[in-house]
Each structure stands twice: as structure tokens, then as C-alpha cells.
Amino acid sequence: MLTLIQTHKLPPRPVVCLGKEYWKHLGTFIRETMIEMKTISMDDLDLMMVTDDPVEAVAYISKNLVKGSATQAEVAEE
Asked: Tens digit of pLDDT for each residue in 3-46?
């Protein structure tokens, strides 16, 4: 999904990964491989959030939908 957002195939939208323990290896791969190989930039890390807290996830989604990313209807349709 992040690649589709970066390449403008999908409109910007908040991406949340629930479960820090589950997603920790993805974060390591992104930081140690993708950034080092320059396939993404540090700014691209701002496209997603990893959390264990559902309330924090909803707040992040709400805040970023309001900022003019994909509308709630567009996200629901996909």
C-alpha cells in the first residue's frame, strides 16, 4: 500500500499497523535495508504508524483524513 501511495496510484491516506511486536521486523527491514538502499527516504516513514493502542490508531487516522488525504468514502470503497 505504501508503494501505491508513493507512486500516486492511491490517494494519500493514513496507514496504521496494529501490533508493535508483530510489525517490528518490518520496521527493521525498512530502516536497515530500504533506507540504506535508497529505495525510500526517511520522510516516507511518516506515511505509516505502528502502535499497540487502538485509540491512538483511530486518532491518527482521524487526524490524517482531515488533512485532505483520501476521504472516508474513498477509503471505505477500496
From this structure: 788 788 888 888 999 999 999 998 899 889 988 888 888 887 88
- Model confidence pTM above 0.90: no
Q: Give which of 56, 69, 75 is closest to 16, Cα–Cα.
A: 56
16/54 Cα distance (integer angstroms): 10
Question: What residue ranges define each of the domains in the chain, with the CATH number in brackets?
Answer: 2-77 (3.40.50.450)
Q: How far is residue 51's CA from residue 44's CA, in Å, rounded to a whole number?
A: 17
